[in-house]
Amino acid sequence: MSLASKLEVMVVDDTSVSRMLITESLNEIGINNLALAKDGKQALAALMVKPVHLVISDQNMPGLDGLGLLKALREYKPTARIGFILVTGSPDKSLIERGRTLGLNNFIAKPFNTRAVRAAIEAVVGKLG
Amino acid sequence: MTPIEHPARRINLVQGEFRVSDDPQVVFTTILGSCVGACIRDPVRGVGGMNHFLLPGAEAGADARDSERLGVHLMELLVNGLMRQGAHRDRLEAKIFGGARMMRGLSDIGKKNTEFAIQFLKYEGIRVVGGDSGGEQGRRLQFWPVSGRARQSYISSGVESANRASAIQAQRAPVERVAAGEIDLF
Question: What is the ipTM score, two decimals?
Fold first, then answer.
């Protein structure tokens, strides 16, 4: 059984088309155990009840943004070790640096393709098989 | 009584750009051929923005999904820019302009761009309240981001005489050659 088929991933993005594009890429890679959330708050509430292995989250969201979600997850013991990949249209150095200090595992720059998504995930969890 | 006209601060956009403003004196301008300009606004917050995009894959039959992803990215940049200035997603309304068929005989790039924009807005639940797209003429577009007023004039290089060079030149040199009168599209 490949790692991809076992991996549980949550996709967080306030733009539904973007959620769909990430989901498509994940399905192509063979990751089908997916949870979806439309903002940081909704994601946090769901993850506190049922953690996943990896969160792939947009940065720009109303309310709780990507790094805000990351910070909240790292501060709560049951979710502190969840892998976290940030998706951003403006991956400037200061944002990524701020992410790293909060425990960000990797990032994906928009616009992305499936290969970039796969590479970013494998850098965090290892070969997907 | 004639309303007092404030001097406008004109900001021109070229392909790939987007701008957002809540300054009532600002007017965004651009020249559209087969490109599309999306004008999106939150009427309650009084902030609006415009982008100017062309999906690359629509042209050469390249990877359609890469093209779609770039388009989504460009639309998202505009929506995120509006939200950073206090706009609410559920109040957003849009006007779509451009998407002309500039070259006969090739695939209708303009139409694909327009369809993409409309589809994106539909998925995101953003109401389309106006605009003008298609046809065979380029457009000179002005958009007042606070009031939401939009004005366009056609550029008189139609499909018969249009070739890539003239289309590109029209993008670079916004020389107004109004075929018909300017149309206000509120």
Answer: 0.78
